[in-house]
From TrEMBL:
It is an enzyme of class 2 (transferase). NCBIfam families: gcp_kae1, T6A_TsaD_YgjD. Its cofactor is Fe(2+). Belongs to the KAE1 / TsaD family. It comes from Maribacter polysiphoniae. It is found in: Cytoplasm. HAMAP family: TsaD. Binds 1 Fe(2+) ion per subunit. It holds the Pfam family TsaD. CDD domains: ASKHA_NBD_TsaD_bac (cd24133). This is tRNA N6-adenosine threonylcarbamoyltransferase. The lineage of its organism: Bacteria, Pseudomonadati, Bacteroidota, Flavobacteriia, Flavobacteriales. One of its GO terms (cellular component) is cytoplasm.
Amino acid sequence: MFYLCTSIFIPNLVEKETIYILAIESSCDDTSAAVLCNDKVISNVVSTQKIHEEYGGVVPELASRAHQQNIVPVVHQALLRANIDKKQLSAIAFTRGPGLMGSLLVGTSFAKSLALGLDVPLIEVNHMQAHILAHFIVTEKNTKPEFPFLAMTISGGHTQIVRVNDFFDMEILGQTLDDAVGEAFDKSAKILGLPYPGGPLVDKFAQLGNPKKFPFPKPKVDGLNFSFSGLKTSILYFIQRETKTNPNFKEENLNDICASIQYTIINILMDKLKKAVKETGIRHVAIGGGVSANSGIRSALKNTEKKYGWSTYIPKFEYCTDNAAMIGIVGYHKYKQKAFASQDITAKARYIIQ
């Protein structure tokens, strides 16, 4: 299934040097391609793999096979929607990592081959860095963060607080010691019998429930690091205990359970973010990653902005989840610095922000 996001492109607003970047994202289970003209998105196509739903999570081998099937039509659609010929491309940007190795290999191999065939530069991109720099995609209403700022990257595989001094000067201040926040949402949903991906469903039901109905413990973790494995265990034991006395407990209290889980997770995130602001003195705060699409987190960040006088930044919904537009904006800024990759480059399943 294809989802197309296209922004309005106004030629007379383009910088003197017109740079066309074709970006490719294949880190997990979404195959995406985008075309950017400088820092403006003119096409952003995402093909979502539905096959994983029946397994309750992403199956790496199936994901890589689906990428092989999807990548050519996705790139074709991106170029078609952008109304440009591949010979007009200035460079090819691609996700090098982190992610599933099989999925990354498909995008990396395709990008290297296309760049070689067109004789254009190749640009490698860190997926997590791209989630942060998605804020610099020019849209109708967005305000770009001011350097330095704090970025909280929250996704299915990562939870980090990053100090961003410049486009390519970043420092991880804290990160999860075990599970990521997105996994905590999805595993909690699985415990409740909700289908994959469960995170959006927890968010949906949470909006109808009482967030303080069922209190869950918050882990005590030093510094700015996170831990979610204990929370998942406490949710599991809670559900097992309650369903012993009432087999219909989950169904009868679904909204309140989801609201209570989401409330606890959001409090954990916001407590660490407030601590980071206090320690660094930086009051510009941005979020990124797939979980930043969660309505409760977005609302909590805005409420914190009002309460503490922060400047907060939330990306457009289509740039929260995995997409090639965010890869393209990193590619654009790397292109300006002539930071090109060689044809010898390989994918990296583990790729730390530096």
